[in-house]
Amino acid sequence: MLPGRGPDGRAAVTRLSRLLGTRTAWTAVGDGEFFCPGCGGDRNYRRLTGQRRFALLGVPLLPRGATGPVVECAACRCHFGTDVLDHPTTTRFSAMLRDAVHTVALAVLAAGGTCARGPLETAVTAVRAAGFDDCTQDQLAALVEALAADTGRFTGEPCAAGLAIELHEALDPLAPHLAAAGREAIFLQGARIALADGPYTPAERDTLSTIGAALTICATDVTRLLTAARTPS
Q: Which superkingdom heads the taxonomic lineage of this protein's source (predicted)?
């Protein structure tokens, strides 16, 4: 029988592992809150770096080099790579989604050229569903007017550079964390706001194209979604 095979071999390996092995001493270098893949929710974490040492009888002796850094969940104690911190917490994700829908609604209303009742009602419904429970038509209309005054542009014009930057700032960080269906849902909300008072204007199409690009939706799918939004759900 080969060494290490069978009950006697396994017992010998177990005894040896108790005598000789590698131990890691962890040092905390930071902390915060993250979305823990193990727990499936927001948790506190510690960022750790480690020093590996050869151990005899459980006593660390010779250094074996550095390891980590890793992220340790304060709840489940599991270790993860630091790339796990790239995923927003549930709280942060909700805020990003809320801000994205709000920005899209304002951009489409501004492109529409007027704050008519239909687009405003549709926009308010979308913004409230995203988390701004106290949003009103008057608030959105005032924000659109302030946006026009601040940028020095008239509503109904193609998407200006400043507004395009705002859309990308709101949508670019969110898009990687959304499935295709989620990105399309945000786009469709904007399209339905535009359609609430009639067919798309050139300025609305331009703004929606900018929204699609920021959501990493290809031009072909943007065209498909513009058509799909005309069909009552």
A: Bacteria
